[in-house]
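Box 3.1 A note on notation
Throughout this textbook, protein chains are presented in two layers. The first layer is the amino acid sequence; the second is a token string describing backbone geometry. Keep the layers aligned when reading.
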Amino acid sequence: MNTAQQKKFNSLYHKHVSALRRQGKAERTIDSYSRAVRRIAEFWDACPDTLTEDQLETYFSSLVETHSWSTVKVDRNGLQFFYQHVLKRDWVWVNIVKPPRKKVLPDILTLKEIERLINGTRELRYQTFILVAFSMGLRLGEALNLQVGDIDGDRMKVHIRQGKGAKDRFVTLPEASLMALRRYWVCHRNPTLLFPRGRSPQERAQATVPMDRGGLQKSFKVILQDCGIRKAVTIHTLRHCYGAHLVEAGVNLRAIQHEMGHECPKTTALYTQLTEVTQTDTDKRINRLVSRMRIRWGD
């Protein structure tokens, strides 16, 4: 792009980001939708408002060949937003690209495998994180951002703040998880964060941000390999495991939906395809589930 085109692109890009913020989009959505606009501009070395439908089709044909369908879907949504809210144009995206709808059941770890995963972890912070993420069915960001003030040891509840959809919720805190959090907190004593960033106890004590998300995910992959677990699982899989094992433990679907913060009951119903269903009391079943694991804590 020449200087004039670049100036025009910068103006439209700024409007795009501003519109995303006005619509209350999450920061990760803003990042991904903005990336979609940058990517197509770099592909054609042109301002997106000048692209023809043929150019859009060519771009997405290339994107399908080089990226995952999830990336294609995000870029499609990001550009659709750009066309509607910035360019004020209609874009019939279905005629250009339509990612296939796939219904894939996630791999689930057994309790023995989760126990093996925790016991095979050398660092106490990772041991604690894996147990906490699993035992409360937390998303990665929800667990990373836990703060000292979120823990209610009297009610045995944890306040999850601004989860998916910017919604708060309370989840059951198993006794084993409370003990693990206290054990790890004593090692760093950060006044705010439960999982602070830093290599040494001193750095963690003074940290103002949580552990790095990318670093945690990489370490989790290494832990899986060390434990000899070959299933296609990620940290988010622990959340699926939680839901599936609660169903197996007999917790009713409405209670699981509440614990996991699912907006749609159909999402919760997925776990009935992974295990068998019975009925029982939520808090007792969660504690019984977590207490069945025999964990050998590291230094």
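Residues 83 and 89 are 5 Å apart (CA to CA). The chain has two domains: 3-95, 111-291.
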